[in-house]
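Deliverable D4.2, example record:
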Amino acid sequence: MGRREKLTGLRALVCAAALGIGGAQADDDLVIGISQFPGNFNPNINAMAAKTYILNMARRPITVFDAEWRLICVLCTELPSFENGRARPETTADGKPGMAVTYTLKPGLKWADGTPLTTQDVVFTWQVGRHPRSGVTVLDFYRRIVDIDVRDARTFTLHLDRRTCDFAEINELELLPRHLERAAFAEPAEYRHRSLYETETTNPGLWNGPYRVSEVVSGARVTLVPNPLWPGKKPHFGRITVTTISNTAAMTSNLLAGGIDYVAGEIGLTLDQAAAFRQRYPDRFRYVFKKSLVYEHIDLNLSNPILKDRRVRQALLMGIDRKAISEQLFDGFQAVAHSLVNPLDTVFDPDVPKHAHDRARAGELLDAAGWRRAGGGIRRDAAGRPMRLQLMTTAGNRTRELVEQVLQSQWRELGIDVRIKNEPARVFFGETVTRRKFTGLAMYAWLSSPARVPRGQLHSSMIPTKANGWSGQNYPGFRDARMDETLEGVETVCEAAPNRALWHRLQRIYATELPALPLYFRAEPHIMPKWLAGVRPTGHQYSSTLWVEDWRRDPTAAGGTPR
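Output generated by the structure prediction step:
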């Protein structure tokens, strides 16, 4: 795993102490290592896996997909359906087909400062979410809700502007505490900065889950303690510390030294690093390699004149030997991706167009696009401008950085000059990707839920701009009328056969137009102490921490309780 991995026990302890994670720990403490620090803490602004992983311990959604990939109620009493009368078709004010869906919040829900969690929080969250200047990530979701009827403190009805197949799923309605956030929202354009999630993150009233955030050391760690007002199952650990160690060699050194107990599979080591670690220490920890819907890819900024040409995008993909990368770096465990839909998903199209590694064909495409070699070197256009692109990803991730070097080398063989520039994850996700500041290529991963319609990533209305408060996740800037139409059909045509046909069309447009370059689908490597029980990796967007109250110390497990 490299020279820097081979720290002595003393050096690892010193490293842990410098990070603030070493020393004596109580038996009801758990220290988790992750590789990125959240760019912010507001659940509705900027999507980032590290933030979601932490916040899922301190917040709970109304609905979510569980570890068995089933949609379930978390804060509600039952899912709406036509059969139970909580879902019904209606006509919108402009005469279009709409829907009304009714939810009832479970009794006894409170924010951790004692304020009841009510339908007023639901309405306030909707008002924030649908405002064009608030900067929420899923603006389109909130805009679909044209009105909310409040029956009482616990029951509310959402009126939707269209009839969709997934009408019961409101996972993205991330509740905000009205009594705290209302003042911060007085100036919507400044909300992302004035939100108490950024200015007063440890305020108990921001949290409604089994834990609450009690300490934040920026860039280093987040500490959580039990929320005594959580009405559900009481958590077992008296304190959970989530520590950011962006250097993966330092991560494994701290794991061996006892500075951390558990490396999170969702946002910890990459598969190759975890597999190599298991080879060296096969019996010391419990290893779970969970195949997942995590989609590693490279977004292409389609505002770049070089990347506007589809032939160039196809040539870039054909110039990569993704199969060799998967076999040599990941022992073949991470399947090559040909579109953004995983073969594990029920809507996967096995006949999606595939761009196999073909350097000769890639060269022909570049020639046809007007990029020709000059003396066997870097390609240039008719005006003599070099074919030069910038590639970015999260700094400190050894595997991504290694993949970058392989890509740079393979593209250079095609005559493409690729320059690497990486940034810390909180900058890369918080500013560069979110605001489309990358000039060429941005490599990262999307986390998805089962059969999740990628409207936010692919619909032309979801391109982030200053005018819409940088809402939406269509970071490439992809505009395609066929894709817009197909996305809308996938959401509204619910009969099995035509819905499947639309899903297949979506994947074929994506694989042909290539707004992003598909790389592979990741497996999540969880490295746990043998005494940790109750962790259930999900393999999808909603992390195992949503059930952190089930995590516990099992002193009878093999390995005992090493302290």
